[in-house]
Amino acid sequence: MSWVEWVALVAVVLALVAVGLGLWVWRQQQRLHAQIAHPAPAPTADAERARGKLVAFVANPSKPDVAELRAAVRKAASEQYLPEPMWLETTVEDPGVGQARQAVEAGADLVVAVGGDGTVRAVAEALAGTGVPMGLMPLGTGNLLARNLDIPLNDPLAAMQLALDGKDQPIDVGWLKVTRWESQVDDDIAEAADSLPADTDFPRDHIFLVIAGLGFDAAMVADTDNDLKARVGWIAYFVAGVRHLHGRRLRVDLTLDDKAAQHLRARSVLIGNCGKLPGGITLLPDAIIDDGVLDIAAIDTRGGIAGWAQLFGEVVLQGVGVRNELPAKIGRIDHARARTVRVAVPGGEHVQVDGDIVGRASEITARVDPGALVVRVAP
User: Fold this and answer.
1) How far apart are CA 142 and CA 23, in angstroms?
2) What is the distance between the alpha carbons of residues 360 and 349, in angstroms, rounded to a whole number?
3) What is the spatial distance between Cα 268 and Cα 216, in angstroms, rounded to a whole number?
4) With bands split at pLDDT 50, 70 and 90, how would you rate the model's confidence at 52?
5) Could you tell me if residue 377 is left (phi over 0), alpha (psi between -120 and 50 degrees) or otherwise beta?
6) Which terminal Cβ of the chain has fewer Cβ within 10 Å, N or C?
7) Other beta carbons less than 10 A from residue 231's beta carbon
8) More confident residue, 331 or 122
């Protein structure tokens, strides 16, 4: 090949390189113009906040559809710029306290309780005082705390989204302690518990977030048929309540803070942190979940069914802001407020906390722990 041909070949190659370089520069300019004209959407504030945050889910595997929920949670978490979430399941031996503590120790920025009121109580017990917020995915019958915080009840993924995007709200926590059990056997158990190491998991101080009670309400919870509850939900509690309408009236010694004890007759004594119940009932209309005090209601009826009918009317009226102050009522509900409460009942009665039975006790005390728990609520 002559030198003229070599020069021609080199010229062709250089021309091809120049054309390719020109095309690359043109494409880069077009891409830059497109980005200027149509910039990519910036991550949302929620996505920026969520990125890098570790979320733990403490789930009750006995609840329906929990296995399917786990897959949906992982998918939703990835779409929210979250790392792989922790998924911890409760057991009969540990309903959620240990799992929630494990999540906190692992550095979780949010712990979501997936289950009913029992799971919520257990997770709250572990998180109280830590500052780590608790989210709710309600799957239970009563879903008491979720009702009072306006958390979606029938859409777990919507509730999860609220937990991710919501704001942190400190709320009060109630603690109930049995200071005297009904029987000597229980007294011996309590004495044995006092001799155990401080970190022993023994049910001596019970958390409640909504309402604790002694008397008719606890007996109703204790007598509720679990199979019926699975079929008809919270209505099963009312079916059980009918069987206790003719139960005995209690002789109660009630002590509020450092005041003198009151001696009264009642069917039930309720100690509440907030007041909404299933069925649209507002039992404690003055209760505020973050006011640093407990609301107490002494419920009494006389005259059989007529007394209960009047009591029901009282509850309905107070739910819409109307109080009936007429004297000599055969169905009544008397309200008070305090930071510490002592209730003594000779002979003993059932005790419940947020729908979970503690046992039969003849004396209990309760106290409020202001702002001890952080929960995620709607912004």
Assistant:
1) 67
2) 5
3) 5
4) low
5) beta
6) N
7) 10
8) 122
If we measure between CA atoms, which residue out of 261, 262, 284, 258 comes closest to residue 271?
284
Please, which pLDDT band fits residue 232 given cuts at 50, 70 and 90? confident
Q: Residue 80 — very low, low, confident or very high, per pLDDT cuts 50/70/90?
A: confident
234 vs 231: CA distance, rounded Å = 9
- Residue 181: beta bridge partners? 361
| Best CA proximity match to 273, nearest among 339, 324, 327, 317 | 339
Average pLDDT over the chain, rounded to whole? 82
* Torsions phi, psi for 267 (to 5 deg): -85, -30
Pair of tokens at residue 158: 């919507």
Q: What whole-number distance in Å separates Cα of residue 353 and Cα of residue 270?
A: 10
Least confident of 113-122, 151-160, 200-209, 246-255: 200-209
* Element containing residue 4 per DSSP (H, E): helix 3-37
Task: Work out the angle at residue 273's Cα, subtended by the Cα atoms of residues 137 and 126, and round it to the nearest 5 degrees.
Answer: 50
Domains with residue ranges and CATH for the chain: 45-165 (3.40.50.10330), 174-371 (2.60.200.40)
Number of C-beta neighbours around residue 150 at 10 A: 11
335 DSSP assignment: E
- Each residue of 353-372: pLDDT tens digit? 999 999 999 999 999 999 99
Distance between CA atoms of 337 and 344, rounded to whole angstroms? 17
Interior/surface letters 63-91, b for 16+ CB within 10 angstroms, e for the rest: beebeebbeebeebbeebbbeebbbbbbe
